[in-house]
Structures are given as C-alpha cells and as structure tokens.
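Customer escalation, tier 2.

The customer says the design service returned an amino acid string that "doesn't look like it belongs to this structure." They asked us to rerun it and document both sides in this ticket. The original structure tokens are below, unchanged.
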C-alpha cells in the first residue's frame, strides 16, 4: 500500500496555535504530514526559514508523523517532487475560502487530478488568529499568550531585544 503523504504549507511566521491545531488534526489523516515552510523572498519575515522550521519542530515534537521541510517556488512542483497525495489548507472564515479555493483550483490545474486539496476548519477559538495579527499585537507590546506557544514568545522577545540593541548602536 502506498504511503499517504500530505502537505500543510505556509509561511508560519510565527507558528500559531491555529497552525498547530491544523497540523495535529491533519497528522491523524495520513501516514506522514509534511509541514512545508515557504521561502518567500518578497515578504519581510520576522524569523528566517531555519528559525521557523526549528520552532515548528519544537512545537510538533510530540507528533510522531510530522516532518518539517522548506521549499520555494510553486507548491505544485514540491508536491510532484515529493510524492504528496493531499494538500491540507486551514480555513478560518469565508475570506480564507475565497482565496484558498482559487489557489486549490490553480494547483489542481498544475498538478492534475492525482493530488487533492482538503480544507480543515480551524478550531473556533483560533479562528481570529493569524501570524500577521500576532506580529502586530506583539510589536505594539500587546499580550500574545494563548495565541502562540511560549517558546515562540521567547523567540519573538529575543528578536525584539536584538533589534533594540541594534537601534542603540546606530
């Protein structure tokens, strides 16, 4: 029997409890869930791809069938090259669906009918959380406990402290 290998891709900058909800639930649906960290050079990221991968590995260490990887370029190419049979996408609300259905249809055109896209609804307690909101609230000294794992908060605080040291030097 062929291994059921699924992909959950995103920037994960930073990884949130909403992401982790989708990862844990998605991992129950397959033999291997690849969490693919997208290298997006057009976006200014808080964390490097390597840092994001490390934070994801720490946050999913208790999920035995999760593999964290990175990729750049078309998701369809990564899927073809790595034997992925299903792409998992998380949905928070209808605005996510509008975007995600377009992406799923384009990806289906690119990789054909061999790969399915499965949408998982985020747990309602995380439906308002996005990495962008977490970064914005944090940058304004707001409370992000309960939105991201403690290790992510520590990493964000370390980034802020390093940036403040850099500003003092300038």
């Amino acid at each position: 029997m062929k291994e059921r290998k699924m992909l959950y891709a995103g920037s994960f900058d930073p990884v949130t409890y909403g992401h982790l909800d989708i990862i844990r639930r998605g991992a129950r649906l397959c033999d291997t869930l690849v969490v693919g960290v997208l290298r997006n050079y057009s976006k200014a990221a808080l964390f490097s791809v390597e840092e994001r991968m490390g934070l994801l590995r720490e946050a999913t260490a208790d999920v035995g069938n999760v593999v964290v990887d990175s990729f750049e370029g078309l998701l369809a190419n990564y899927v073809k090259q790595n034997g992925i049979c299903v792409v998992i996408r998380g949905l928070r609300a209808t605005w996510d669906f509008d975007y995600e259905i377009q992406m799923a249809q384009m990806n289906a055109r690119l990789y054909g009918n061999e790969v399915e896209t499965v949408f998982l609804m985020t747990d309602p307690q995380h439906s308002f959380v996005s990495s962008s909101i977490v970064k914005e609230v944090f940058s304004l000294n707001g409370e992000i406990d309960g939105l991201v794992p403690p290790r992510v908060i520590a990493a964000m605080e370390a980034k802020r402290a390093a940036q403040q040291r850099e500003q003092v030097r300038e």
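Tier 2 assessment: The sequence is consistent with the input. The mean pLDDT is 91. Residues 58 and 83 are 25 Å apart (CA to CA). Sent an explanation to the customer and offered a walkthrough call.
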